[in-house]
Design a protein that fits this description.
Elements (H helix, E strand, L loop, with lengths): L5 H13 L10 E4 L1 H9 L6 E4 L23 H5 L5 E5 L5 H9 L3 E5 L5 H14 L3 H16 L10 E7 L5 E4 L4 H9 L2 E2 L7 E4 L1 H7 L3 E5 H4 L4 H4 L3 H10 L3 E4 L1 H4 L6 H17 L1
Parallel strand pairs: 1-2, 1-3, 3-4, 5-7, 5-9, 9-10
Antiparallel strand pairs: 5-6, 6-8
Helix pairs in contact: 5-6, 7-13
Length: about 280
C-alpha cells in the first residue's frame, strides 16, 4: 500500500488541525492559473488568496504571494503546505491524480471551465463570483468589460492580416489558429487571423508563413525570450518574412493575449492601434 511521505503526513495533520476553525468568510484560497488569479483579484478576493501558481504574474501583488509550482504540474505537498481550504483553477489544472489526492485531504478542488472565446471570460468571472459569493462584483466587472468593448470599433480601420506565433526559436514556428485566445481577440477586433484555417496551436513552416504573408506578427514575451523585434526579425525562421513585409513584429503580454483576462479590451485596443500603424506604413 502506498503511504504518503513524512512531509505530506505533517502537512495533512496541520491542515486538519486548522480546518475546523475556518469559516466561509476566512477561506484560504490557492489559485492555479494566471487567468483565475487575475479574476479573483478583480473580484476583491486578494486578502483571502494565500498562494498562486507560477503563471500568476498579474497584478503585481500576485507575484509576492507564495508559489505552488506550475498549474499543470502541481504537487500535493506544494499545495497543502499553504493550509488552503480551497484550490481553484481552470480545467487544465493538474495532474488529475494530484488533484484527487488533495481533495481526499479535505481541500475543496474547484475546476472552472476554460474556453477560447470572449464569452468564456464572462463565464469564468460568473463561475468564480458565484463560488465565492461575489455576484455583485462579478456582474459589475462583466458590465465594465462590455462597456469598454462597446466603446471600441467593431473592426480595425483597415483590413489587416496578422499572425500570433507562440514559438519562434530553435524548435521552429508555431502559430495560433482557431479555437485559441489570440484568434478570439483577432475576431473581436475585426482582424484576419492569417492561420485561422488550422485549429489550436500548430507547427508552421517558413514557406507557409511566407505564403500567408501576415502584415503583422505578434509574439508573446516568453517566446521572445528577451529579444527585441529587430533581433527576432534576424532569426532564420523569420528573416525572409521580415524582408518581404518589413520587421512588423510586436512583443505582447501573454497574460492578456493568451488568457482570459479582464484586461481583454486593452488587447483589442492594442490590436486596433497595430492595425492602424501597419496600414499607414
Amino acid at each position: 500500500m502506498h503511504r504518503p511521505n513524512k512531509l505530506l503526513r505533517g502537512v495533512v495533520i496541520l491542515l486538519l488541525a486548522v480546518q475546523p476553525g475556518i469559516t466561509a468568510a476566512t477561506e484560504r484560497i490557492v489559485a492555479a492559473g494566471g487567468s483565475v488569479t487575475e479574476v479573483l483579484f478583480a473580484l476583491g478576493l486578494d486578502e483571502q488568496l494565500v498562494a498562486v501558481d507560477t503563471s500568476s504574474l498579474y497584478p503585481q501583488a500576485a507575484t509576492t504571494l507564495p508559489k505552488i509550482g506550475y498549474y499543470r504540474q502541481l504537487s500535493p505537498e506544494g499545495v497543502l503546505s499553504q493550509q488552503p481550504t480551497v484550490l481553484v483553477g481552470h480545467s487544465q489544472m493538474g495532474p488529475a491524480d494530484v488533484l484527487a489526492q488533495i481533495s481526499r485531504m479535505g481541500v475543496e478542488v474547484v475546476n472552472v471551465q476554460h474556453g477560447y472565446h470572449t464569452d468564456s471570460l464572462y463565464q469564468l468571472i460568473t463561475a468564480l463570483a458565484e463560488r465565492f459569493n461575489r455576484q455583485q462584483q462579478g456582474a459589475q466587472l462583466i458590465a465594465d468589460i462590455r462597456r469598454q468593448l462597446s466603446q471600441l470599433p467593431k473592426r480595425a480601420a483597415m483590413p489587416v492580416s496578422m499572425a500570433f506565433l507562440v514559438s519562434v526559436g530553435e524548435r521552429g514556428l508555431m502559430a495560433a489558429g482557431s479555437d485559441t485566445m489570440p484568434d478570439a481577440l483577432f475576431t473581436t477586433a475585426g482582424i484576419t487571423n492569417a492561420f485561422s484555417a488550422v485549429s489550436g496551436y500548430q507547427p508552421l513552416s517558413v514557406e507557409a508563413l511566407m505564403a500567408a504573408a501576415p502584415l503583422q506578427i505578434l509574439v508573446p514575451a516568453h517566446a521572445a525570450a528577451g529579444q527585441s523585434a529587430a533581433q527576432l526579425c534576424q532569426l532564420p525562421a523569420l528573416r525572409f518574412w521580415a524582408q518581404q513585409q518589413g520587421c512588423r513584429i510586436t512583443v505582447v503580454d501573454p497574460l492578456i493575449f493568451m488568457g482570459l483576462s479582464p484586461r481583454l479590451p486593452m488587447a483589442v485596443r492594442q490590436l486596433h492601434q497595430l492595425a492602424q500603424v501597419s496600414a499607414n506604413e
